[in-house]
Specification:
The structure is a single chain. It contains seven helices and no strands. By secondary structure, the chain is an all-alpha fold. It has two domains: 41 residues, no CATH class; 58 residues, 434 Repressor (Amino-terminal Domain) (Orthogonal Bundle), CATH 1.10.260.40. The protein is elongated and about 60 Å long.
Length: 122
């Protein structure tokens, strides 16, 4: 097991190939240790070079609704009425602090994600 820092795209690709080979190694083996270390190194490189922006609050809500198989009507209690839910999800109205609290609890989303600014449609 010869590990070296990932400093370039070539190093990154090599690390990914090696990680693929040792990924399913049995625990408590040198290959398993190598997979753990490679995983950390690859993750760190990806955080620096392949940043993924968080979705805006409305997209986050829609994604979570899809994951939980929820419909708009399932958010009535948290947002306040079918038409209000529609206005929020269609970006006609902004989320209020109370809605953010309720949605954060129901959808298990971070309040920090839900308070981010987003554009309304006209």
């Amino acid at each position: 097991m010869e590990l070296k820092p990932i400093k370039s795209e070539t190093d990154y690709q090599s690390a990914l190939k090696r990680l693929e080979l040792v990924f399913d190694a049995p625990t408590s083996t040198p290959e398993s240790d190598e997979a753990d270390i490679l995983g950390l190194m690859v993750d760190e490189y990806e955080k620096k070079h392949y940043r993924i922006e968080a979705p805006d609050p409305i997209e986050a809500i829609k994604i979570r609704m899809e994951e939980l198989h929820l419909k708009q009507v399932d958010l009535v209690a948290e947002i306040g009425g079918k038409s209000r839910v529609s206005e929020i999800l269609n970006r006609k109205r902004k989320l209020t602090v109370e809605m953010i609290r309720n949605l954060s609890h129901k959808l298990n989303l971070s309040p920090e994600l839900l308070i981010a600014d987003y554009q309304l449609t006209r």
